[in-house]
Every structure is written in C-alpha cells, then in structure tokens.
Amino acid sequence: MHFIMLTCLGFAVAALPGSVSAAATPSGYPPPPAHDRVGTTGCGKPHTPGYHYRDTHGNFSIVSGTSTRYYAVQVSQGYNARQPHPLIFDYHGNGDTSTEQHRNSQYYNYPASQKYVVIYPQGLNRSWEGPSYAVKGTDDLQFTTDLLAHVQAEYCVDPTRVYASGKSNGGGFVDTLACSDHGDSFAAFAMASAALYTDTNRTSCSKKRAILETHGHNDTVISYAGGQGKGGPLPNVGKWVKWWGERNCGLDAKAQVTGDLGGYNITSYSCGGLENVTQHYHFAQLGHCWPNAFADNYDAIHLTSQNCSEVRVLDYTPVVLGFFGKWDLGNAPK
Ligand SMILES: *[C@@H]1O[C@H](CO)[C@@H](O)[C@H](O)[C@H]1NC(C)=O
Ligand SMILES: *[C@@H]1O[C@H](CO)[C@@H](O)[C@H](O)[C@H]1NC(C)=O
Ligand SMILES: *[C@@H]1O[C@H](CO)[C@@H](O)[C@H](O)[C@H]1NC(C)=O
Ligand SMILES: *[C@@H]1O[C@H](CO)[C@@H](O)[C@H](O)[C@H]1NC(C)=O
Ligand SMILES: *[C@@H]1O[C@H](CO)[C@@H](O)[C@H](O)[C@H]1NC(C)=O
Ligand SMILES: *[C@@H]1O[C@H](CO)[C@@H](O)[C@H](O)[C@H]1NC(C)=O
Ligand SMILES: *[C@@H]1O[C@H](CO)[C@@H](O)[C@H](O)[C@H]1NC(C)=O
User: Is 226 in the pocket of ligand 1 (CB under 6 A)?
Assistant: First the structure.
C-alpha cells in the first residue's frame, strides 16, 4: 500500500546518495558500483520472494551456544540470487515476535527496501540481553554474529552493506551491538524508542558508528528523561544523543538542530566528511512507538496505551532506509 502511496517519497529516498547509481555520498565518496561488489557464499541459491518463518523442515533456526534460536526473513520481489543484496537485521521489542516487528517497520511496503534482504531475529523469551528482565546468560551478540554467518551462506549478501534496526528493547540491543566488536560487521544502526539500558554514560561505549534514533516526548515506557526503567537505569535520551555526537566527532562536536518540522525536530552531528553521522528525531507528542504516518503498523494497531495511531506526523521507515542507503563499511566511521 505504501508502495503506491509513497511513490514520490520513495523515489526521493531511493535517489539519495548511496544508492549504487548516485554520484557521491554525503559522507565523502561514491560507493563502488554494483558490478564491483562481491557477494557472499549464499550467492546462487534461489529464494522465493515473500515473508517466511519456516521451510519444509520447520521454523528457520540455528544453534547458537547451547540454544536453538529462531528467525524469519523477508525476501523482496526483486531478489536476484546472483546479485549481492544489502541486508537488515530488525529486532523486535520486549514481549514481541519477529512477525510483530515485520508488521511494525513494514520495510516490505517501501520501494527503497526492494533491494534488501531483511532478517527478523527472535529473542529468547521474547527479549534481548541488556535489561534485567532478559533471560540470564543469553548471548544475543554471539547469536547475531552466528546468524549473520548463516544468512551470508544462505543468501546473496553484500557484506559491506549490513545494517541493524530495532524497536524498544530491540532498539536498545541495536545500541549494545553498535558498542560491541560484533557491531564491526554493520555499516549503520537505527532505533525507535530505544531502551538504552547498556549505554548510560558517554564512556560506556568507545565505538564510532553511524547512529539514527527516534524518541517521543510522551513515551511512558522508556522515558525521554531517563531514570529507572523496568529493566534498570536508563539515560536521558538527549544526553545519549550528545554522547554519540561526541563519540563520532569529538568532545567539541556541535549539534545542528532544526526548528519544529511539524511535531518533531532533528538533531544532527557532522564532522570530517561524516555528514549526519549521528541523527535523532525528537517527537513532541509521540508515545512508545515506531513512527508511522498511516496508522497501520503493529504499534498503531496494538499499542493503544501509547496513542501510537494518533501521531501521524512522520513515517520513520523511509527515513531509516534513506540513512542506511548512505553508509557502507567503506565510508562508515571507524
Ligand atoms: C543532514 O540532516 C539535515 C537535517 O535533516 C538535513 O537538512 C541535511 O540535508 C542533511 N544533510 C545531508 C548531506 O544529508
Ligand atoms: C514455529 O513458528 C510458529 C509460528 O510463529 C510457532 O507457533 C511455533 O511454535 C514455532 N515452532 C517452534 C518449534 O518454535
Ligand atoms: C520469561 O518472561 C516472563 C515474563 O514475560 C518471566 O516471567 C519469565 O521469568 C521469563 N523466563 C526466563 C527464563 O527468564
Ligand atoms: C559508565 O558505564 C560503564 C558501563 O556501562 C560503567 O562500568 C561505569 O561505571 C559508568 N561510569 C560512570 C561514571 O557512571
Ligand atoms: C525539539 O523538540 C522537542 C520536542 O518537542 C522539544 O522538547 C525541544 O525543545 C525541541 N528542540 C529545539 C531546539 O527546538
Ligand atoms: C502527550 O502528553 C500530554 C501530557 O500528558 C497529553 O496532554 C497529550 O494528550 C499527549 N499526546 C498524545 C498524542 O497522546
Ligand atoms: C494518551 O491519550 C490520553 C487521552 O488524551 C492521555 O490521557 C494519555 O496520557 C496519553 N498517553 C500517552 C502515552 O501520551
């Protein structure tokens, strides 16, 4: 549906620097053309377009450590087994499932996603490591690395264009991943209403990463102001954005903040050829939601306590796709 309704916007997003046909990225130099990209060992294996969580043998799973871990996959209509595709790992919120996150971010509805393979990992007991409520001893960072190796052997993936996104506990885990060596395989990180339990001061993370986050001022699950959350202490989101600005651009980094763009504003940090390497969308009224302009995603329909369907000022998924489209491992901050 968004595919049709957003044709113009989708075209604009697809035309952002970073798509292989573009002249130059804002981050300094053009990405290599498609024919120069080298795919992974999964190239040549056919896959049927659509959303899949099981094959003829059962649900898709791998063994990671001592656990069997599950995942689902969206194969786009344009999937070509001989062409390296960019890849997104999209992590659900606490208490949720792969399929619920699939319906939350709805990548499949947007033209700019059609070149991607999207993987929806399933958390053990529906949560991710970091908060105190996660299953004790779970190593979701190792699961991510193990699943990435598995996916690269099953699908034709461009290993320089692997990205992570997530909502709430899944967004917080994306930040945990960004702060870890396991995140070195990922070119950019995007979060909505992130539960930032593992990143509570500037020095708790020493990585430089391309970071995008959105947060609503009405979020009553992961408060913008921080404080005690269900899974432990949380940082003030505005301070956390500044830390990422400083991690990427140094202690004298200066934020650029837009005026009110109609219910939200954008804070951006840029430095040394890294244009908008830290970006934050701050919504005046939004609750604990993946922002959606059509009131038809999982949060809009099911998270009624957060009034997710009432604030339709921006559709976040094309923003995420535009952000991912600007980065690969060649131009990402190091
Ligand atoms: C950086 O982000 C700001 C705010 O959204 C935008 O106005 C600007 O065009 C962006 N710059 C680039 C090069 O994308
Ligand atoms: C496979 O997935 C279905 C739907 O999500 C679920 O009901 C079922 O329990 C899963 N099976 C296993 C073995 O996890
Ligand atoms: C799984 O989550 C439920 C709450 O959703 C909790 O009561 C239970 O203790 C958790 N199990 C484990 C093994 O952490
Ligand atoms: C910063 O965070 C790290 C890891 O989360 C923690 O070990 C350290 O004590 C914190 N430092 C301060 C000053 O709070
Ligand atoms: C950005 O928007 C938030 C939420 O409405 C608001 O609290 C903040 O003051 C705004 N920042 C600027 C610089 O306008
Ligand atoms: C946001 O919170 C304010 C103050 O609690 C409330 O008046 C307003 O209705 C909320 N907005 C939405 C969209 O729920
Ligand atoms: C949702 O809207 C109701 C009614 O306007 C308000 O009382 C409540 O605070 C809002 N919830 C959030 C999370 O903004």
Answer: no
For 47-88, write each residue's pLDDT tens digit: 999 999 998 889 999 999 999 999 999 999 989 999 999 999
Residue 19: CB within 6 Å of ligand 1? no
Residue to mutate, 265, 266, 313, 314, ligand 5, most ligand atoms under 8 Å from C-beta: 265
Task: Give the number of the atom of ligand 7 that is nearest the alpha carbon of residue 307.
Answer: 1
Q: How far is residue 31 from each of residues 27, 209, 259, measured CA to CA in Å?
A: 10, 18, 32
Q: What is the pTM of this model?
A: 0.91
pLDDT tens sequence across 278-310: 999 999 999 999 999 999 999 999 999 999 999
The minimum-distance atom of ligand 4 relative to the CA of 198 is 5
Q: Which residues contact 43 (CB under 8 A, 6 or more apart)?
A: 81, 82, 84, 156
Q: Which amino acid is at 239?
A: K
What domains lie within the chain, and their CATH numbers? 33-326 (3.40.50.1820)
Atom of ligand 2 nearest to the CA of 98: 5
Place of tokens 């208490």: 95
